[in-house]
Each structure stands twice: as structure tokens, then as C-alpha cells.
Amino acid sequence: MQQTVHLHYIYLILISSFLFSCTSTKNEEKDYAYFGGEIVNPNTNYIVMLKGNNYNDTIRLDKNNRFLYKIENLEEGVYTFKHNPENQVVLLEKGDSILIRLNTIEFDESLVFTGKGSRKNNFLIDMYLQNEIERKKLTRANFMSPSSYFKKNQDSLLNNKLEAYDKLIQKNELSDLAKKITRSTIILGYYGRHEIFYNSRYKLGGMDLISELPPSFFSYRNKINFNDNDLERLYSYHRFLNYYFANATIANYGKELPQYDDQVGNTIYRLQMIDSLINHSFIKNSLLRRTTTRFLLKSENNKESNQVLDQYLSVSTNKKSQRELRKLSKSISNLRPNKLIPDQDLITSKGETVKLSSLFNKPITALYFWSMESKDHYVRAHKKTAYLNTLYPDIDFIAINTDDDQTRNWLKTIQMHRYKTNYEYGFKHPKCSSEELVIHYRNKVILVNNEGRIINPNADLFAGIFERQLMQYSQLARLEN
Known about the structure:
By secondary structure, the protein is α+β, with helices and mostly antiparallel strands. The protein has three domains: about 1-115, Carboxypeptidase-like, regulatory domain (Immunoglobulin-like, Sandwich); about 125-335, no CATH class; about 345-480, Glutaredoxin (3-Layer(aba) Sandwich). About 50% of the residues lie in helices and about 20% in strands. Strands 10-9-13-12-11-14-15 form a seven-stranded mixed β-sheet. The protein has a four-stranded mixed β-sheet with strand order 4-1-7-8.
């Protein structure tokens, strides 16, 4: 009931703004759209709206965690709205008055649109969730099955979605743009799963397995538009293109340029291919950045990182991304094994400031990181490290909270879960520290010795190999001591 009251309250304001805007003509009214709603359990007091390279605006939440925003001179199309660390898209057209309600605990699953323009957007989020479910259901058995069986299954899923699309356009008067976007999210999800099939099959069996695929399996590739401005913010479009270029590189680079038969050459070739086939600035720069970032995060060699970074800088036109990737590359180079870990200011459970370097009291210290934005992760992470601590008492497991300006809530969380406060810290400067320690994924663990020298900068807390790594490092530490 409370949800309905909140939305009704906002909607009344929205409708009133239409009824009492006496100075506007009908043509002027069509030049803008309203976007508003309520964020339950917000992580920050704002959301950010984005479209391509040219539109970026911050919208503040009021004291009731609601917002109402008017976009003047609307450029119709798909916008991204971000509420850290999550984001989703909304299709906005002139005259729309769209309200959302979402709970950050289940961001995508809780998202509901109401108001004028809501039906096309509810369809988009439904298709997004279905695509995610179907993608996650793909298993090793699927990838090893005959391509004809895989395709038959995917065709059936596609037909079900297209039937839902036909019902949507029969019951609702949608513009050509809305029809294109809603249908594209279905088709691109279908294409994307074919590319995932190819990529996973290659990882499982190499060129022998993918060479068995008939040309008809990829007949849709002839229909690809690499520069579709209407799709520039559509998640399924970018996922498909990322897999497509990864697969095109696998298929082509070894044949055309045998000297590129390694991961560095592979990535450079992929960057060159993206540059040659895509003219759209936003799409091109997004793909270039993603490809380069993935390589840098996995690279264990500064020389190779610099080769790929130089190639990226030669084809990218996004100055902001260029600065960020230069900074990322430098941070990664400072985290190589045997280097001293960059010292950071931490906050204790008592509110005191201490240096990270003061915590290394045992032969090995494992630093792991968590955020209140992901309860499932931090609960699992604390359980896993508590278990590991019983197996490896000569290793300290230090938890570091990465949330910005959340000290009070962070303390309440560790007290509620009865975590050991002498092993719990928070970054005093979360953004800078996260960048310097390159915390790009939740499961990351940094292992250091008692001198603060890095043993492993990128261990994975939940990887099967992690316990074997701890055993090896512990044995080496005992031998050295």
C-alpha cells in the first residue's frame, strides 16, 4: 500500500505539471519527457543519466529517496540510469512521463515502470531478465552438444519471445523506434548466445571444435550493423559486439598474421579490427576500452601491458578513458609480485586512522574487500575466510570495506554479524585506495608477506586453486623463516 501511495504522490505532481503549464504549446510539450520515481534502500543520494558521449546529468534524491526530472529538448532513444554500483536502461521518447520504483537489494528484479511510456520499458526489463536467465543456464554440456541441437533450442526460445513482442505491438501503439529497440533486445540476446557458444566451445576444445560449426550457424552475422546509433546504450548490443570481436579475432588473426599468435598480438589485432569496422565514436570507444581493460587486469608483464596500451591510445578518441587507462596501467605495475604494496590510510572499528603497512604481523596477510552493496558476497567472504583461518593460523585475513562515506553503517554491519573487529577496517579514502589497489572485482585477494611485499596481487577468494595457493605460500614462508 505504501508503494502505491508513494508512486501516486509522484504521479500527481507529474500530471499537475502538465495540466498547469499554461505557457507551453503542444509542440513544445513534445520536446521533453519526465523521468522520476523512488529508490528503496539507496546506496547514494543521486542517480546519473547518460546517453552517448554528449549527455551526462546527475539527479538528486529528496529526503524520501524520490526524484522527478524533466529532460528538455529530448533526444529520443535509450538512456542509461546509474545508481552505484548498478545501472539499467530506459527508452525515452518525447511526451513520455515514466516513473520507476526499485529496491537496490534486488536492483533489476525489483525494477518496475509506470506512467506513459512504461509498457515498452517493462517489456525491455522483462526481456533483459529472461536473457540473463537463459545465458546463465548455458553449461559445458550445452557447449559440447551438436550445434544443430543448440540452435534448435535457441530458435524455440527466440520464437517464444517474438510471440510476446507481437502481443506487445498489437496491444500498444509503439513508435518505429520503440519497435526497433524492443525487438532488438530479443534478437541480440539470441545472437549473443550463439557467440557465447562459439567462444566457450573454443575454450573447451580449441580450433578443432569450432571448425565443425557449419557456416549457416552464423548466417545472422551478415545483418550486423556495427554503428547503430539507436542501440548505442543497449546492453545486449554491447555484449554481442564484445563476443563477436573476440570470436572474429580467434578465427582470423592466426590465419592473417601468424606473428600475432599470442595474447598480446591477439588483443592488438582485436583493437585494430574494432577500429577498422566501427565509426560510431561512443560504440568504438566503449569496445576499445573494455578490451584493453580486460587485458591489463590479466597481464602479468609490464612490457606486454605497454604494448597493448600504446595500441589502444593510438585508436581511442576518448581523452577521459585514455587518462583512466594510463592510470590503471600504472597502478597495476605497482602491484607486481615482490613490490611493496602501496600504503593506504585505514579506519579502525574505533574510528582511528592507521596505515595498511602496520597490519602485517604474520608471515602472510590476506587482504580481501567487501561492500555493503553486496550482502551475499560479504557474508560468503567472511564465512570463507573464517574457515580458512582455522586451516592456516599463520595467515591473517584482513577485511577492508570499500564503501564511500558509509562508516556508521559499516560499523553497524560488522557489529550485527559479530565479525572480529580487530580484523575489520575501512578505506579512509575509498575511491583513491580502490584505484591504487586495482579493486575491479569482488573476489579479489591481495597476499603480502610481513614486510608488505606482494606475494600475489590477484588471488580469487572463491577460486578452486586459492586454497592450494595458500598451502604453497605458507610452506614457503615457513621454510624462509
